[in-house]
Amino acid sequence: MKTGPGLPEHTLFNMPLVNASRDAACAALLDGKSRRVAFLNADCVNIAARDKSYVNALDEMDALLPDGSGLALAAAMQGKRFTENLNGTDLFPMLCGMAQQQGKSIYFLGGKPGIAETAAANAVARFPELIVAGTADGYFAAEDEGDVVDAINASGADILLVALGAPAQDKFVARHARALTPSLCMGVGGLFDFVAGAVPRAPKPVRAVGMEWAWRLACEPKRLARRYLIGNPVFILRAVRDAFNGERLGYAVRKRVMDTILSSAALLLLSPLFIFIMLAICLESRGGAFFSQIRVGKDGKHFRMYKFRTMYPDAEARLAEIRKHSDRDSVCFKMANDPRVTRVGKFLRKTSLDEFPQLLNVLFGQMSMVGPRPALPIEVAEYSEYEAQRLKGRPGISCLWQISGRADLKFKKQVDLDIAYLRSASTWLDIAIIILTPLAIISRRGAY
Fold first, then answer.
1. I need a surface site. Which of 26, 107, 251, 358 has the fewest CB within 10 A?
2. Which class for 329: exposed (0-12), middle (13-18), buried (19 or more C-beta within 10 A)?
3. Which residues of 150-186 are buried (b: 16+ CB within 10 A; e: fewer)?
4. Residue 195 lies in a domain
5. 196 DSSP 8-state letter
6. What phi, psi does 135 have (nearest 5°)?
7. Which residues of 238-275 are buried (b: 16+ CB within 10 A; e: fewer)?
8. Do 140 and 17 share a domain, yes or no?
9. Among 239, 247, 256, 243, which Cα is nearest to 367's?
């Protein structure tokens, strides 16, 4: 993927997708800089899974726009949300309006004979001052592509809309990216059919509830039945796999089931101990029994992590004055005789009882029983590219270095062990770490 238009992005299926409003997206695409743009919908994802050349073409694009409810669903599975659906039918009128205001011309390429001409005529009917640089259908032979590119360039078009359908349109744009002179070249799928009236557009209420696919299926049952009735379930499976960041699906499901069962059971069984700890904390010093802090989870997503409070209430304010005494050789602060820690807190840390409220984070799905320990945002900001690999997995209550020396290990060794775990994670390894964790707690090695 080349340098994009500087808009926020969400990464899905290992591809960066623009996360912006339609107004912001159109303004960025028409900023005069060279832009090669493609839309990505559920069908495109399915095609990309079996067509490497299509993936290569998408990699050549400067921006990918999320199109349809399928991409919204895939994003929701990862706790993400697109600002707006950037499909071609919604963007087209905005694009034409801005092009009219800026005096930019559009070349319409693609569709059956007459479709591009009708689409252009309908666009001008709505935007009378819109400049149409030219039109051409998509029924040209491969050996004639050079002539087509020459005709587009000769027209002086500022914008090229290519409606050859995916993946042909995106391969065409990628193949001639350097030769094409329009500043914006964008594949638009079946857009011309809608603009030309060849395919009626779904009413607003249907689009509002994300059911445009059902409308299109009713209009074109033969062509779209295979795409929607077979393609959609396949896409959902790919979205689920993507949500687990490429993890083996069976292992990821087993891990989540194990996390849910163990965290629920532990919270229930340990609730009397929790009450006793809460009373001890509150009797020694002012403040609540719990401490929460923003930590960095899987893929850099922030979440609020819970612990029993082990420090005096002014601990955060006093950090700067003692940071130079850190026992760690890295950005991660750790001090054996931290003066901010209470007497009860020292006992909780030695026994690791202060970590037990993180069972709530495990139950909520923000953490796992086993995984790299969650870091602070200020620490992650200074990670090297290698160290950032720790963020590829869900953070855990325990991990390999927790049972191998804990705070006694240098930070680099901790990182090495975390990355080694993520590369070889399995259900049996998780079980082994869970079994060995109590032994590490009892030994108290590296606990402070």
1. 251
2. exposed
3. ebbbebebbbbbbbbbbbbbbbbbbebbeebbbbbbb
4. yes
5. H
6. -140, 155
7. bbebbbbeebeeeebeebeebbeebbeebbeeeeeebe
8. yes
9. 256
For every residue of 140-194, DSSP letters joined together read --GGGHHHHHHHHHHTT-SEEEEES-TTHHHHHHHHTTTT---SEEEE-TTHHHH
Does residue 230 sit in the same domain as residue 319? no
Enclosing domain of residue 231: 9-243
The answer to whether position 253 is within a domain reads yes
**Is the same domain home to 276 and 192?**
no
What local confidence, expressed as pLDDT, does residue 448 receive?
A: 47
Is 2 domain-assigned?
Answer: no
Beta-carbon contacts of residue 104 (< 8 Å; ≥ 6 apart): 30, 98, 131, 158, 159
Give the integer Cα–Cα distance in Å for 384 and 39.
33
Per-residue DSSP letters for 153-167?
Answer: HHTT-SEEEEES-TT
Is pLDDT above 60 for 222? Answer: no
What is the tally of structural domains in the chain?
2
- Condensed to tens digits (0 to 9), the pLDDT of residues 311-365 reads 887 766 666 666 655 555 555 555 666 778 888 988 998 888 898 999 999 999 9
**pLDDT at 1 exceeding the cut of 60:** no
Which pair of tokens denotes residue 62?
């400067």
* C-beta separation of 66 from 85 below 8 A: yes
**Which phi and psi (to 5°) does residue 162 adopt?**
-115, 115
Residue 51 forms part of a structural domain:
yes
Instruction: Kindly compute the dihedral angle of the four CA atoms of residues 290, 291, 294, 295, in this order, to the nearest 10 degrees.
Output: -90
Single residue among 221, 243, 265 that ends a domain in this structure: 243
Q: How far apart are CA 391 and CA 301, in angstroms?
A: 9
**Partners of 341 in beta bridges:** 311
Q: Are residues 172 and 258 in the same domain?
A: no
The reply to whether the predicted model has a pTM over 0.70 is no
DSSP 49: T
Q: State CA 248 to chain mean position distance.
A: 18
